[in-house]
Amino acid sequence: MIPRHYVDLNLQNGGRGAGLPPPVLAGAALRVLHGVFKQQPSRYALALPGFTEAPFAKLRVFAGDRDDLDVLQEAVSGHHVFQNQVQLGYPRKVGQNYEGPWLRYARYRIPSRKAGRHPEDGLRQRRMLQADERRLPYFIINSQSTGQQFGLYIAIDSVEPPAEWQNRDIEPDSYGLSVASRAFSLPDLPI
């Protein structure tokens, strides 16, 4: 997939105390997106535009073409979260000559509690401290396969623009994120 098209998902808490708090709503939206991304592997990439200014106000989904965004719209439109509190914007095209900043959105792994059973092993605590120091966004996710709840932390890093990005295929994971073995970046388009 080459990230040529995108759509913004505006997260609305329903106003006047109604609905879910923004981080919870963002997590609910990501759970729905994850289901679609898992069924349609490597077709969608996730971005968090403007996260530092307005956390959890928007999610952005990149796709190779407009038809993929139509498939996404069809897949999520019946879900109650998308009917009531998440509004899909109008699909847009990334400019062919885009020369602005690029960001990498990658999963930041923190070992589970079970992994840190040995008191002398402080990897979990170090990774959590680093995530807090970097103020990494995270989503609370409930795994349908294991039934466990976990925090999905996302590292956002500025990177150099990829050479000839218009011809470079990317392979996002099932959350739409970059992984070490298939690293990629996305254009940081204005909101």
From TrEMBL:
Read off the Gene3D superfamilies from this record. CRISPR-associated endoribonuclease Cas6/Csy4
Name the Pfam families for this protein.
Cas_Csy4
Protein name per Swiss-Prot or TrEMBL: Type I-F CRISPR-associated endoribonuclease Cas6/Csy4
Source organism of this protein record: Methylomonas subterranea
